[in-house]
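quick q for whoever's on today - can somebody do inverse folding on this one?? i tried earlier but teh output was garbage lol. tokens:
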């Protein structure tokens, strides 16, 4: 994580994604990452996993795309990290 990640993201940053289906979390205490199982459980989070770096103790800079009607605990269709590296894959998954 970057030194700039210790504070919550600005509205300018969070307004980049204009899709009302998108939810952005700033996981200050890493509780969401732990609830998802952390990097050790990454293989169970999504059917397709495009992660371009080693995650040590927290899931970060990641986007998960779920199918319509998914319930809590469902497997995502796609997980990408870092988001900027897999932008086209993410856009395609959301469009479907």
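ok took a stab at it. sequence:
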């Amino acid at each position: 994580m970057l030194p700039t990640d210790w504070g919550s993201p600005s509205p300018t940053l969070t307004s980049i994604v204009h899709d009302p289906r998108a939810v952005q979390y700033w996981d200050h205490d890493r509780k969401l990452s732990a609830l998802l199982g952390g990097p050790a459980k990454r293989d169970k989070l999504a059917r397709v996993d495009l992660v371009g770096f080693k995650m040590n103790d927290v899931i970060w800079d990641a986007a998960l795309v779920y199918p319509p009607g998914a319930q809590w605990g469902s497997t995502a269709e796609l997980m990408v990290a870092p988001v900027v590296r897999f932008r086209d894959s993410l856009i395609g998954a959301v469009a479907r």
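fwiw Residues 38-96 form one domain. also The mean pLDDT is 84. so keep that in mind when u check it
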